[in-house]
Amino acid sequence: MTGSGGPVPPGCAIVGRDGEREELAAFLAASGGQALVLRGETGVGKSALLDHAAGLAAAQRYDVVRAAGVEAEAELPFAGLHQLLYPLLPHLSGLDDGHRAVFDVVFGLRAGGAPSIMSLGIAVLDLLAVAASQERPLLLVLDDGQWLDASSIEVCGFVGRRLAGGSVKLLIAVRSDVASRFDTAALPELPVTALPDEAAGRLLDLRHPRLAPPARRVVLEHARGNPLALLELPSSVGAGEPGGFGAVPLSRRLQHVYGLRIERLSGPVREELLRGALDGVGAGPGGSRVSGARYRMREADEAVAAGLLEVDPATGDLVFRHPLVRSTVVQLATPNQRRAAHAELARMHRDDVERRARHLAASRVDPDEEVAAALEAAAESATRRGGAVAAVAWLTRAAELSETPDARSRRLGDAAFIAGHAALLDQAQRLVRADPAPGRSESPATAIAAAYVALYEDGDVRSAHHRVAAAIEHLSDPHHQRAGVVDGGAEVLTRLVDLLLATSLYAGDSASWHRTEQLMDALGDRVDPRSAIYRDAWSDVVRHGAGVGGRVERAFADVSALEPWDVSRLAVAAYHVDTLGRYRPYLRRAVDREVETGAVANGMTMLHLIMLDQLAAGEWDDAERTGRRALELNTAHGNALFAHHTRAYLGLLAAVRGRVEQAREAQAVVDAWARPRGIGFLTQVADAVGTAAALSEGDYEAAYLHAIGITRPGAFEAYAHQAPRTLLDLVEAAVHTGRLEQARRHAGAALDAGLPGISPRLAMITYGAVAMTTGDDREADDMYARAEAAGGGFPFELARIRLAHGVRLRHTQGPKAARPLLAGAAGTFEQLGAAGWAERAQTELRATGLPAGASPVHLAELTWQERRIAELAASGLTNKEIGERMHLSPRTVSSHLYRVFPKLGIASRAALRDALAKAAH
Question: CA 150, CA 135: separation in Å to the nearest integer?
Fold first, then answer.
């Protein structure tokens, strides 16, 4: 027989409850009668476990009787007991007259004095014994036991403690956050706790597989492993916050979980809870230890007694028992109550610009310029610490509260600009369409948003460049100077110029750069100094790169004053002049924050830069991991330009490692996408990939043909950013294909263009290229020495130069002179994983008479960085001087030397020169 309820419906699988299900199976399989109480917070899944147990019992030929406590009947004596026993009343005929009379009295069928709990309990035990048998045992299932009347609970407790020896089992579910007499019934208990994080995620994905990642994080954070919340929250979480920090909208069912208890509180206590909820007081242990000074709830013992608050053991502060309590408090408040609470909290946080502004904004309905300005200041603060998503929301609200159309338009434009950097391109477009200024051509904000979408979503550099250039011309027109002021003045102009520079960088052609430079020249001193750095570094480093490294360093002097996007733009400039390594720590500290807090596009750029510096520094495994992470991020946000940009760099890494098929596949994909769109930056990188892949497998003819696709020998094409970067590639390919004249002309052009003065890397490869092509041995020795002196921090290129030097020495001075250089090159290539180059170096080593696979023992034990530091130290440089040359701290240099000494079997710096010379023979 069954009462209400039944087994678990199909498709409603229980997730993460293996231990509880095993306990229930053992409970049902055990011989004899017994009772068990499932205790857990509201919505934790007790009912699902009761359903599961009922299903198991039915399959084992139990008769199942089900009942559920009802809060409205909690004051009716024996109402719960009547519900539980009602299906068994036909068995009363099997009892003696005395026990039948007891039931008649308690169920109101005849008059008489109320029996004692003991006599009624004994009568219930007799009834259960009649109803159950060995062949058909009986399972009583009672849900929401906390709502049973006190008399019924007393009887259930009495009976439950005396079931041993029979064929009856009693299974009761009660809420742990509601006090009841079951708390002292002394029955065995099975705690039902919140789901672990992994199980909570599985349940959410099972029931809501298409939930967006941001919404998924919010649901998991607020549900805290509560299955009911995991199932109910997704349908309402996208509706936005109902006005509080950390509160989310709740369904009627979730609101009911705590709503009745909140509504029973006195007015002052509800107001106290509302202030705490709106100020983001946390839930559970550690709930008060959140960033910033939060409101401290006081005089709320009534809420503690109701199971809505608890005391944080670490701080003694009152915190919400569960995030759902906080959300319910906010949702039950009226709009006027919430606004009044926000106004009071704004006064409390008068010294915290962001929190005060947020509360002020929520306390107002009508336009208020003072509040709008406060929100604008808060958005600027949030932007500087990486809170792009919050900044967009606050600027949008500031626009809504603006008192003039011009201020509204300006703030919407600012929001659209930050949304573009957050990779929220659709939102950026919606923002600029939100309040089009009447009777006016396209606003700068519209131009910026449209250009971002065109550039990053589809790589349309032509239309993006045209649109931004037109907007700059519009602001520069004397007839529109007033409009320029309205549209944000210098700040908006700088944003337009910087975006124009970015589109020109990707276009990589003379026409785009000529127009860009004409516009910037016309702007004169209205161009921001940082924008001038970007132009000189990004456009043509051969012609404009001198001195850029120092300008970047000065701009980075106060990094805390820079906007996040200026950090990444300055780092791009540093990459073009090969000083990126010194700024990588800034990027590492910022990138996770940028991605997590919403400035995703900026985070993507930072990941590119970190990968490039890892590639340059010889950290190739790390570079590949960084590139894969960037590609996943690009793809997830639909940023096609950055996705292909990342593929290009991954292709370049594959090429230098000798993974030729992988490199050429990446080259083909990037070239096929970029060339029709006129994205010269990426087509040049694709050509560089082809060059590196061909060099890696020793196909010098193919390498030469790829290299001259970037620039012709003896010249550095204007605005071809890969031309100086592939200098060594073109020269090596030309030398190995017998084009010695072209190689000499190209190396000479690099020297004449002043490349050594632009960056340490360009100095190294320029001197190396001249050394490879000169017929004068003395000049070659001098140039190789200069290359060695400039080469710290770029192990792959330095190893190539050492390989070429070693080959030359073998021909001019004999095998013995060549071995140290060839061994050093071979060791570096092996450590980097540059398979093709390592094989070539080993071949040259064998030509010196060294057995196959042999290398000087001690040198082979040193990393390329340790070897380089040891060589510089042996030449007499101090740790500080070595650190400056290799962009390391003196302490790091000292640590490397500490490891080098035992590897070489020496104990002092003075023995370095002899040890290195001995190890090389």
Answer: 33
CA pseudo-torsion sign 912, 915, 919, 921:
positive
Q: Find the helix packing angle between 510-523 and 489-507, rounded to 10°.
A: 160
Label residues 797-817 b or e (16+ Cβ within 10 Å = b). bbbbbbbbbbbbbbeeeebee
Domains annotated on the chain, with CATH:
18-191 (3.40.50.300), 239-360 (no CATH), 856-921 (1.10.10.10)
Answer yes or no: are the C-beta atoms of 571 and 587 closer than 8 Å: yes
**pLDDT digit string (tens) for 663-722?**
999 999 999 999 999 999 999 999 999 999 999 999 999 999 999 999 999 999 999 999
- Residues 86 and 730: their CA atoms lie apart, in Å, by 94
Q: Is the pLDDT of residue 2 over 50?
A: no
- Nearest residue to 694 (alpha-carbon basis) of 738, 650, 750, 654: 654
How many angstroms separate the CA atoms of 57 and 35, rounded? 14
Decide if 234 contacts 210 (C-beta within 8 A): no
Rounded mean pLDDT of 828-855? 82
Angle between helices 335-348 and 353-362 (to 10 degrees): 160
751-776: per-residue pLDDT in tens?
A: 999 999 999 999 999 999 999 999 99
**Sequential DSSP letters for 638-693:** T-HHHHHHHHHHHHHHHHHTT-HHHHHHHHHHHHHHHHHHT-HHHHHHHHHHHHHH
User: For the whole model, what pTM was predicted?
Assistant: 0.62
Cβ burial of 466 (10 Å; 0-12, 13-18, 19+) is middle
What SS3 state is found at 37?
A: strand
